[in-house]
What does this fold into?
Amino acid sequence: MPDDSRVIPALELRGVSKLFGDHEVLARIDLKVMPGETLCVLGPSGSGKTTLLRCVNWLETPDGGVIFLRGERVGVRETNKGMLPMQDRELAAIRTRIGMVFQHFHLWPHLTVLGNVIESPIHVLRRPRRDVLREAERLLEKVGLADKRHVYPAYLSGGQMQRVAIARALAMRPEVLLFDEPTSALDPELVGEVLAVMKDLAHDGMTMIVVTHEMQFARDAATRIVFLDRGRIVEEASADEFFERPKTERSRQFLERYNR
It folds into this structure.
C-alpha cells in the first residue's frame, strides 16, 4: 500500500451516518482506503458492515457525511443552486467504477458463464465486443472457470457461481471492488476456492473492501482491519496488530469467540 500522503485515496468516507427509523446503523464513520489496499471489515452480525458497503455505492443513501471516489464526490453534485442529489444516470456512471460481489451471486440465469461476464461491459460501457470477449476469456482463466464458459449458472456449484460473479465484477474494470460476505452462502468445502481467487486479487494490488467472517483470510490477505460494533469503528489496525495485539476489550472478546 502506498504511504505517500499525497496519493489521493481510492475511497474516503467522512462522518458517514445512516439511520433506519430511530436506529443509528452507522455513526459518523471516517475511513480512507488507499489504492492497492485490501481492507477487511469485521464485526458481529448487525454491526453495520453491509450497510457501510451499500452506502459506498449509494445503494443506501447516507443520512450524514460525505463519500469520495478518487477525490470525486459520490451521490451529490455541486451546482449553482448548491449541492443536489445525483440523477440516476450520474449514479449509474459512478457505480460502474465500484464493483460489488454479493452473498448470493445474482447471476443472470438465462446467460452462460461467458454471457454473464460480457453483458455489462458491452451494453453499459459500450466497449467493443471483440475486446470484451478477449478480456472475459482471460478473467475466466484467472478464476479457474475457462472450461465452464458455455455453461449456464444452474449447472454450477455455489463456489463456481461466486467465481463467475467475481469475474463479472472485474470485467467492468472497477477502481474499487466491494465484497459483502462472499462465502457466507457457500458449503464449507467450497469456501476455499473463492478465497483463493480473492487472495490472488489482493496480491495483484486490486483495491478491495471485504466484509467477512473468514478470520484466516483477513489475517492473511488484509493490509488493514476495521472492526465495527454497533455502527462505530471500535478499532482500526494492521492485520498483525489486530489479531496479535488487539487494543480494545471489545475486539478481544470478538476474537476469543472466533478462536473458540
In short: The two ends are 32 Å apart (CA to CA).
